[in-house]
Structure formats: C-alpha cells, structure tokens
Amino acid sequence: MSGKVYLCGAGPGDPELLTLKGRRALKEADVILYDRLSNNELLKHSSSEVELFYVGKKANKHHYTQSEINKLLLKKAKEGKIVCRLKGGDPFVFGRGGEEASVLQENGIDFEIIPGISSSLAVPAYAGIPVTQRGISSSFAVITGHEAANKKDNSVKLEKIANSVDTLIILMGVSKLENIIKRLLNSGFESNTPVALSRWGTKVEQESLVGNLENIVNKVKKIDFRPPAVIIIGEVVKKRKELKWFEKKDLYEQRILVTRPKKQADEFCKLLNNEGAKVIKSPMIEINKPDDFSDLDKAISNLKKYEWIIFTSINGVKYFMDRLLKKDLDSRELKGINIVVIGKKTAKKLNEYGIKADYIPKNYSTKGIISGIEDYAKRKNLKIANSLFLLPRADIAPKKLEKDLEKMGAAVNNVVAYKNGRPEIQEKTYKMLFDNKLDLLTFTSSSTVINFIKGIENYRENRDNIDIFKNVKVACIGPVTANTAQNNGMNVDIIAEEYTIGGLYKEILDFYKKR
Q1: N or C: which terminus of the chain carries fewer CB neighbours within 10 A?
Q2: Rounded to 5 degrees, what are φ and ψ at 300?
Q3: Catalytic residue among 57, 219, 262, 345
Q4: How confident is residue 397, by pLDDT bands cut at 50, 70 and 90?
C-alpha cells in the first residue's frame, strides 16, 4: 500500500510563520525531506522516530539533484510512509512543487499541497515595505532572478513585465543583480527608481539595503551583500523609512549568549528572539539524575516526619515527584506538609502534579525566603523551631538557606535530588568571545558563571592574555550570581531585581531601551 506525500510550505524563515496544517503534517510524517531555506527549528514539530533527509540546494552545490529528490519521494511513499516534503516559502512559488506533484500524480501517489507564506510577500513586509499601497502601487509581479538576468532567455519578458506593474519583486537575483539592473535601465526605467534588498528576511539575521537603480550595484559590492535576499523595486520602497519595524526592535542584531541548561533555555531564547536578538545557546550546566537516590528515597519513605518541604527550583520538583511516583506513591503522601516553592515557574511545575503550593515568597533571595517563611508561619500559627524541613536540591546548592533555618531552631534535611554537571567545552562560544563577536553574556546562576570561567581557562591556553570582557556586557539573574561574576573579573551591567527569567529579560530590555 502506498503512503502519502505532503508538499508543505515552510514559510520564509521565522518558525512562527509555519501554518497550523504544516505543523500537523510534520508531526504525522514518517519521513521529512527539507530544504536549505526551511528553518531547522521546524523539525522540532516532528516525531522522535522520523527519518530526515537534507535535500538543500545552493548555487552550484546540490546535496540531491531534483531527479534524485523525485526518486526519494516515490521510494518512501511506495514503502507506505507518510512523507513531508518541507520547502522554503510556498511550494508553488519558485519551489518546483508543481514538478514534484506531477511526478507523484504520474506514479499514482496520493499527495496534498500545503501552501506556505512566500518570501516574496513576507520579506518586504518584515523590511517595512508594502508591495501595494493606495496611491503608490496597485499591482506587483514576482519573478525569478536567474532568468530575469538573461535577455536571451525568453521565459521572462522582464521589460514588458516591469513596465506593466508598479512593484517588481525578484527572488534569487542577488548574484545576477548587475544584469537585471542593466535590463531595467535599458527598458526606460529612471535611474533614481528606489530599490531595496533584504537578506535572511523574517529571521533575526535579517539585513536590508536601500538604494536606487543607479547606485544599488555598487552598494551591494561595497559591503559584499550576499544571498539569499529578496529584491524590491518601485516607489513603495520609500515607505520603509516610515514603516520599518523589525529592524527597530530593541535587541535587534545584539548577539546574546544564553548559558542556561539546554532543556530550560527555550523560553528565555524565545523572549530575546522576539525582540530581534541573535541568540547563541551555550549551556554551561547539565541537569542529571544523582549518582545515588538512596538519600532522596529515604526522605520520601519518611515523609510523615516532615512539617515543611521547600522546592527551590523546577528541577527539584521534577526529580522529587518522579521519584515519588516511581515508588508507587502519589501526591497524597504530602498531605499535611507545608509546601514552599521559590518562584512562579516552580509553582507551575508543582501544579502539573496536582499540588498547590502553600506559600511562594515574594523575594527570592535567601534573606527574603527566610523572612517570608517566618511571616507566613506567624500568620498561620505554624512553628519553625523543632520542625523538620526537607530541601530536595542540587548537589552543589549553597548551604545558606539550610544554615539560616537551623539558626531559627529548625532541623533540616538537605537531600540531593539532581546533579549540576558541566557540558563539554564549546570552543565556538569562546572563539566568539575572544573575537569580540558577543554583545551580552547572560548568567542565571553562580554555577553557569563558574563553568563558563573554567571553559575560558581551558580555551585561553596558547592565546594572548587579553581583557576578553572589555567589550562585552554582562547580565545576571540576581546579586549572588552577579557577585560570582564580579569575583571572576566581569563588570556586571545588568542585575535582575526579580530573580526570574522574566525579571532578567525585563532588565535586559530596559537596559537596551535606555541605550
């Protein structure tokens, strides 16, 4: 029995511009064939068992020829697989989707076309250029630059098309720009006709260049403006000055290093990306299960002895609850225990297990936590002295919270629920730092700082002993992390007053807005 092929448009680059139907096709697919211009982030919508084939094409360099792609589509479909052919932009706009659909039709393979947002419309929009505008442009044409550059190629009547529409949009034309401009000028276009080029449009790498038919070629050569880019020609280009929005974002082009653990970095990265930042993910901590669960298991077996549990992180909740469930126990074991959590995200994680925290301190510093617990205990007529506290935490968690509770007369069992490990040294990250290609370093714990510094020490061998922090800004989630950074030679420019990812993001945004 034959399978099915989805010819799916991936959109222009911004992963959030994928259609809902496209996301469903990716999720259902047994096999995905994806292009160079389709954002690899889209592959996260696929199943963990999907078979992936990169079939991208670049000028003079093809991983697969079109004939080989066609054969691969047929082969996988005839094996009974659901195949998603993920194509940048829209499959029927210079995407050779029609050719692939014809091959599938001729061989009796079931297929569907899932349109995507074409770069021909999306990229001008992200550059602040409307392809139509009342009183300026009531028509536009989209053509391929490869053919438009060659006057002998009769497939594109550039002179006739260009003189029949108000806005001309050219895809895949940067390498042929000089020939295209010559044809337009020879066809009667004024030399001062506005032109814009926008490369990697809709992605955080987006760059735009504006000129006119007379000077645009020299401008492109001067800064070595390379493809992939969309070319827009016409009076609407003048609207960019007024309507430019994407490249005016507060963090546009700022290269920001995120050192959070890999599985916990997505939210922070998304916030930064949404403001135009170029995020470099370089985890400085790995969260792992402890070498030995015996202490945690013993605590779980004796939960009735505890009056209080303090969860200081999402990881503490996850590893504690997972171990509880693995022992065939559930949330009923926590009945009667006062549960304190540090942070709304930790409280949300606890809610996933059907448990509501009794108290969430407003101040996340150790002093604020202690003071908050003390006030809460007084209001609820609860005792701290001679009470037994359970703290399921990381193996390297600071001891101050434990010691301050003991000073109040409490007995504290600080058990290891998870380990903070150090990932392998990521040389690309340190090379960027030494080459002044990072604008902001972000740290969400003292551990991320310490592991980062250790990586520098290893990387620095046989290199000049330069001040690598001179031209880079540093942001820390709170005063403890900031103090660690300062003790390791960094000038800390941003410290979050609220010790959360949201608080850190807000402080970063405020800092760059003021600049």
Answers
A1: N
A2: -65, -35
A3: 57
A4: confident
